[in-house]
């Protein structure tokens, strides 16, 4: 007898038949005596269809209105899943972002959740209903519809689980759990039984694609145990939880990569105090997230400054940066949107020296040029040309002994 | 310099190209110095697609959830039209039913508007924005999403016009206005310049399909002038207005028909006081609208009772009626869902005798059997077998001299 939040992504609810299957799984969980809250995404392909319509009208559509359009995808799914559950004799009630409400900031297209009111859902549960919640969406203070950005339904699910103090948040996806790396690149990649929030945070932010970064942040902040598992079978997946709950600790837990990167370099920036703020404020004002920043040491009073952004922000970021470059008297701006980032992540890196050296040697031995480096306590990331991505992942996965034993 | 509400139906916004054209027309109206509020339907085919998804899950889908699904169609259109207007440099802001809010009762799938708050739209107009409003949808007191039923966007538009005291409500459609009958059946049908609310009410309720009945009721109640016109040209259409504004009055203004009818007969109903209430209360409880009621005079202490319902309610109505029939000890229930209603409408019928006789003679001369009759001050309707519909319309249109002169 527990309160379980289940989240089903777009591929899990991609057809009417799949929605029926999800309803069946939800019903089974209910039959075991649990209270169930289901968070769903739009049916696979639907969000792209909607954004495609908007893009036929404008290259950079008004983002407030884009959210009005995009948020309908999840609304359709909650209605359909509730109909399927009712048809099976399970009372169900759908909730949109405004009905709960899920309060967010006003950063359209990539809003952040500020608060979720648990009372309306709780009163449905008390009546014996299954609550079916639209992921990805919320409203801001003015009542405008907002969306959380790609993958935002994971965040919705974990935030709802936090608001309701749920026992576990199950994230159903089309993979069995979190792997040491992408099995599409390394066939000997292994499923991890457990992983800490901290490691998952680095893996998610680096593009492991299983779980959205903000979902992990919410989980860590509010101590929500997240169970990542497959919607196609009943196998145990990967439990994302507190470090204390992790037993064995390999030096490196996984190798992640992200191809969706773009690199922008401002050439000959005058080296004055306050210049960095001048450059990055317009970008943050435009809601562009800057990732890696590399600045060369200044010798001549000028410096080259390089940073990366998500590839979808590349055009907007280039325009913004070119304006700023003129204002501050820099020489020019050059960009490259064919950049990838490869990273290794592991809690035990803290207590093991020589990990960085091993990374650089491994990549160097294969002739992969490193265009930038960032590190944290539990992560080392290298920017490389996109074409080397698969090669880099494979050699690092092997170098740190992450593959299954050959006879396994 | 006026406040104009414009409503565009599904065919007018059926493709991205058509949405651009609508944006162009809205912009022209704005350029003339008018404040503009646009009310839109779902893109043509979209509502059927959404209902089709729901029907794959259930034959009688949960209606609360059906509204959640169906209301997304209009939400997509308001977002897209606002994006199109913004792209052209016209500030625009979309409004869903809950954002305004449009308060309705809780009769899902066919809710009625109780109140529209004008303040949020007015504040957008004050800022110089074009307000783009989702037709067809509202919320009830509990915050549940409701829809007004097929054609409900007309009602939304006129109700919004009433709430804002707009100068005119323009209903854009794929026809040039209101005709003396369906030009698809009578090629010599003529466009009416003006028509009274009362006549339009009878025509709309009888299936003229140009304008929804509740929209006309709202127009009449709040004195909103409704201009029905084509979205494909700039021609003046038909003005629906107060009787005082109508000049010439033909005896009969138009011939309407409705094929979407079904007839239910309860055989051998015990003739006791209160029996009619027993029969019709369960139907109204199920939100089924009963139209024509015919009861034979009782001789033997039993009577046959016949009534019609919309064809979409037929199954539900039969089930409900069969239960009631058992309870009251009636003999049996028989139904026929292939019924049509043909009607003639005209203000001047009040002062002309012999109109009914002419209708019966005209139909009788063609061998069309009349299965039931209802009349009002300005209307005569006959139930007939559906297969005779076109024939009946043609002979009545001719008998009352409604066609264009042969040389026109």
Would you mind describing this structure in some detail?
2 copies of one chain form a homodimer. With 408 residues, chain A is of the alpha/beta class. The first copy, chain A, folds into 2 domains: 3-174, Acetylglutamate kinase-like (Carbamate kinase), CATH 3.40.1160; 256-399, VC0802-like (2-Layer Sandwich). Chain A has helices spanning 16-31, 46-57, 63-70, 72-87, 119-126, 152-163, 197-205, 213-222, 275-285, 314-328, 355-365, 389-399; strands spanning 3-8, 35-40, 92-95, 102-104, 113-116, 130-134, 137-139, 145-147, 168-173, 194-196, 226-230, 238-241, 254-270, 290-295, 302-310, 332-345, 372-376, 379-385. The longest helix of chain A is centred in the first third of the chain and has 16 residues, at 16-31. Chain A is globular, with a radius of gyration of 23 Å. The first copy, chain A, starts with a strand and ends in a 9-residue tail after the last helix. In chain A, 48% of the residues are buried. Chain A binds chain B through residues 16, 19-20, 50, 53-54, 56-58, 61-62, 64-69, 71-72, 75-76, 78-80, 82-84, 86-87, 92-94, 96, 98-99, 143-145, and chain B through 16, 19-20, 50, 53-54, 56-58, 61-62, 64-69, 71-72, 75-76, 78-80, 82-84, 86-87, 92-94, 96, 98-99, 143-145.
């Amino acid at each position: 007898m527990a309160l379980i939040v289940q989240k089903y992504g777009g591929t899990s609810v991609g057809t009417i038949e799949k929605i029926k299957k999800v309803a069946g799984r939800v019903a089974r969980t209910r039959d075991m005596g649990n209270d169930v809250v289901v968070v769903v995404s739009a049916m696979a392909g639907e969000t792209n269809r909607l954004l495609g319509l908007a893009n036929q009208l404008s290259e950079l559509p008004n983002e407030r209105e884009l959210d009005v359009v995009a948020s309908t995808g999840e609304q359709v799914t909650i209605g359909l899943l509730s109909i399927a559950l009712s048809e099976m004799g399970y009372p169900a009630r759908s909730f949109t972002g405004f009905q709960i409400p899920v309060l967010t900031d006003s950063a359209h297209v990539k809003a952040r959740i500020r608060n979720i009111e648990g009372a309306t859902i709780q009163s449905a549960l008390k009546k014996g209903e299954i609550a079916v919640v639209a992921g990805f969406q919320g409203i801001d203070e003015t009542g405008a519809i907002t969306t959380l950005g790609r993958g935002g339904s994971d965040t919705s699910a974990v935030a709802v689980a936090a608001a309701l103090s749920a026992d576990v948040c199950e994230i159903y996806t089309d993979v069995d759990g979190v792997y040491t790396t992408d099995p599409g690149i390394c066939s000997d990649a292994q499923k991890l039984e457990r992983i800490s929030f901290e490691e998952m945070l680095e893996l998610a932010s680096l593009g492991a694609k299983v779980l959205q970064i903000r979902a992990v942040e919410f989980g860590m902040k509010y101590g929500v145990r997240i169970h990542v598992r497959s919607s196609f079978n009943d196998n145990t997946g990967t439990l994302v939880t507190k470090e204390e709950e992790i037993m064995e600790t390999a030096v490196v837990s996984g190798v992640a990569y992200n191809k969706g990167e773009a690199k922008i370099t401002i050439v000959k920036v005058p080296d004055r105090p306050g210049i960095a703020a001048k450059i990055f404020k317009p970008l943050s004002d435009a809601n562009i997230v800057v990732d890696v920043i590399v600045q060369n040491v200044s010798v001549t009073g000028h410096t080259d400054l390089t940073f990366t952004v998500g590839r979808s922000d590349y055009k907007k970021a280039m325009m913004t940066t070119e304006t700023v470059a003129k204002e501050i008297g820099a020489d020019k701006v050059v960009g490259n949107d064919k950049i990838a980032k490869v990273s290794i992540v592991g809690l035990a890196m803290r207590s093991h020296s020589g990990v960085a050296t091993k990374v650089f040697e491994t990549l160097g031995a294969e002739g992969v040029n490193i265009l930038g480096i960032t590190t944290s306590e539990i992560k080392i990331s290298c920017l490389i040309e996109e074409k080397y991505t698969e090669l880099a992942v494979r050699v690092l996965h092997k170098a740190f002994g992450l593959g299954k034993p050959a006879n396994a």
